[in-house]
Write a structure and sequence with these properties.
One of its GO terms (molecular function) is ATP binding. The chain folds into two domains: 224 residues, P-loop containing nucleotide triphosphate hydrolases (Rossmann fold, 3-Layer(aba) Sandwich); 119 residues, Nucleic acid-binding proteins (OB fold (Dihydrolipoamide Acetyltransferase, E2P), Beta Barrel), CATH 2.40.50.140. It is built from nine helices and 21 strands. The strands form five sheets. Strands 6-7-8-3-9-10 form a six-stranded mixed β-sheet, sandwiched between helices. 39% of the residues are buried.
Length: 369
């Protein structure tokens, strides 16, 4: 997918391809990152997101294309000359050194004056709230503290672009949540360009100005988080974002002035608002997608444009709410209800939704209709 051009981008990737022998890993990628933007590369394992980040960092040589950082062609520059700071999944701290020595190591090797090193360390320690840890060694730190130090090591380089390669994946859920907030605050304070790799959709949705969803070495969709969530360009994107994932019901689209989606025992009136352009998929097999949180129950369902009777199959208490599984059109469907709602397996229920909030995909191409 071609992204819209950005005037004077902080990072510009142009027609980038990477091959490992006969295997094509990244395929003619184009991506412009605006000055001060927070971009998240999101996708499953093996989609090429970390590989793309390593190409930007200069850790991998690309096969074709060009990479620009701050207007400078850095395609064949060494990593140290690209003006980037990188934070890896592993903390990669020197165990024999104190936090202060870990932070200053790269600067000392580069010959930065001692006064400047002390100034940068003090600034990074204050921003990351690690001043009390400077004389400790990594073995005396928690996982969250070690990751703060790893971020600080990139921060002291005083660069324009920060690259994060799944920095929170080794932490427990509570620490991930806390550090997500800290990284967001860090970006707000510094206003540096940040490119962040993750397979965690929550990280992507909460951190990103824009998300690039990747699959098979190709950017499937690049847009603001809510746009991707509400208007996914294809079935892969629709299914990857959302927990639980979007419900998919296979059926047939009937053409006409008032198009209707039909599956086993149901007819869902779509209206013209359901289509991107004309009814290009009319008369063809298609897939109807609706997110669990867009499905109403009981009295609320009766007020919806589409409503149907069903039976509870499974009830999954999730704490803050409850996930309920039922069937619609002969296929499994999940939806959310309040945690205090009492439902049991086998209960007869009425569900409903507004088709305007749904997505419709071509069954053959998986593209949005």
């Amino acid at each position: 997918m071609m992204a819209a051009a950005i005037a004077n981008p902080s990072v510009s990737i142009q027609d980038l391809s990477l091959n490992f022998g006969v295997m094509s890993v990244l395929k003619t990628l184009n991506l412009d990152v605006a000055e001060g933007e927070f971009i998240v590369l999101l996708g499953p394992s093996g989609c090429g997101k970390s590989t793309l980040l390593n190409c930007i960092a200069g850790l991998l040589d690309i096969s074709e294309g060009r990479i620009f950082i701050k207007g400078k062609n850095v395609t064949w520059e060494e990593p140290k000359d690209r003006g980037i700071g990188m934070v890896f999944q592993s903390y990669a701290l020197y165990p024999q050194m104190t936090v202060e020595k870990n932070l200053s190591f790269g600067l000392r090797v580069a010959g930065v004056p001692k006064e400047e090193i002390a100034k940068r360390i003090a600034r990074a320690a204050e921003i990351l709230q690690i001043e009390p840890l400077l004389q400790r060694k990594p073995s005396a730190l928690s996982g969250g503290q070690r990751q703060r130090v790893a971020i600080g090591r990139a921060l002291v380089r005083d660069v324009d672009v920060f690259l994060f390669d799944e920095p929170l994946s080794n932490l427990d859920a509570k620490l991930r949540s806390e550090l997500r907030v800290e990284i967001k605050l860090l970006h707000r304070r510094l206003q540096n360009t940040m490119i962040y790799v993750t397979h965690d959709q929550i990280e992507a949705m909460t951190l990103a100005d824009r998300i690039a969803v990747m699959k098979g070495g190709v950017i499937q969709q690049l847009d603001a988080p809510q746009t991707i969530y509400n208007r996914p360009v294809n079935r892969f994107v629709a299914g990857f974002l959302g927990s639980p994932a979007m419900n998919f019901i296979k059926g047939q689209l009937e053409a006409g002035d008032a198009p209707v989606f039909k599956a086993d025992g149901i007819s869902v009136p779509l209206g013209r608002y359901a289509f991107d352009g004309d009814n290009g998929g009319a008369g063809k097999p298609c897939v109807f997608g609706i997110r669990p949180e867009h499905i109403a129950l009981g009295d609320a369902a009766k007020a919806m444009p589409f409503t149907a009777e069903s039976t509870v199959e499974i009830v999954d208490p999730m704490g803050s709410d409850t996930l309920v599984w039922t069937k619609l059109g002969g296929q499994i469907l999940s939806f959310r209800v309040e945690a205090d709602k009492t439902l049991r397996n086998g209960d007869a229920i009425r569900i409903g939704f507004d088709p305007a909030r749904a997505s419709l995909f071509d069954a053959e191409t998986d593209s949005r209709l």
